[in-house]
Amino acid sequence: MRTRGPILTLLAVVVLALVLLAVNLTTAKDSSSQAAANAAATPAPGAAPAPGAAPAPGSAPGQTPGAPQAGGTSTFPPQATYTGKTSGRKAGEATVAVAVHNGKASAYLCDGKKLESWLEGKAEGSSLKLTGKGGNKLTGTLESKTVTGTVTIDGATWPFSASPGKAPAGLYRARTANVDAGWIIRQDGTQTGVQNIGGQASEAPELDPSAGSAVLGGTTVPVKMIEGGDATAVGR
Fold it and tell me: How would DSSP label each residue in 191-235?
C-alpha cells in the first residue's frame, strides 16, 4: 500500500502535463489562424483595391491622385507658360508661346518678320482652344508637360509643340494707340518678335525683359509680360 501513493502522484503530474500541453497547442493554433487571416485581409503596398472597394478620396476609380489621366494627358496648372515652334512651314518656322492663368489662355505666333497673330481662349482640363481675328485659331493638348496641337493663321495650318519655361522665358507685349509689338523669349534665352507701327509690320528690336520697356519707332513704350487672358485684346 505504501507504493501506491507515489505512483498516483506521478500519474497526476503526467495528466497535468498533458492538459497543459493540449492548452498550449490550442492557443498557438488559434494565434496562427488569426495572423493568417489578418495577412490575407491587408493588401500589399501598391496593390489594386479589391473589386467593389471605394477609391481613395479625390481620385477617380482606377486613378492615383495627382497622376496623369488615361493616355498620358494631364491637367493645365493654375499658371504656366509654354514656348516652342511650328513645323512644316514652307517659309520657315514660326515661334509660338502660350500663357495660361486660372483657366484663361493667351497665345502669340510670330516669325520675326511680318507674320504674327494674338489669340485668346480657355485652357480646360488638358485641352486648349484659342481664337483670333480673321478666323485664326489654335488648339492643343497638354501631355507629359508639353503642349502639342495645330495653329491656323490666315487660312494656313501648321502643327506646333511647346514646352514649359520659367521667367524670363515667356510672352511679352507692348501696345499703344500706334504701336503693337510682341516678343517670345524661349527657355534658352533666344527670342523672336514682330513690331507693328502704323500698320507696318517688321522685326522687333531685341527685348531686355528686365527693363520693362522698349524703344519702338523712336518712342519708349511699356512692355508687359503676358499671363493667360490678359493680352488686353484679341490681336490681328
Answer: EEEEEEETTEEEEPPPP-TTTSEEEETTEEEE-EE--TT-SSS--
Q: Could you tell me if residue 151 is inside a domain?
A: yes
Cα dihedral sign, 67-70-72-77: negative
Cell numbers at residue 78, please? 493654375
CATH number at residue 89: 2.40.160.90
DSSP character at residue 190: -
What's the chain's average pLDDT? Answer: 79
Res 42 pLDDT > 60: no
Nearest C-alpha neighbor of 226 from the set 207, 199, 203: 207
Residue 26 domain-assigned?
no
Specify the pairing of strand 116-124 against strand 79-86: unpaired
Say if residue 47's pLDDT is above 70: no
pLDDT, position 229? 79
Domains held by the chain: number:
1
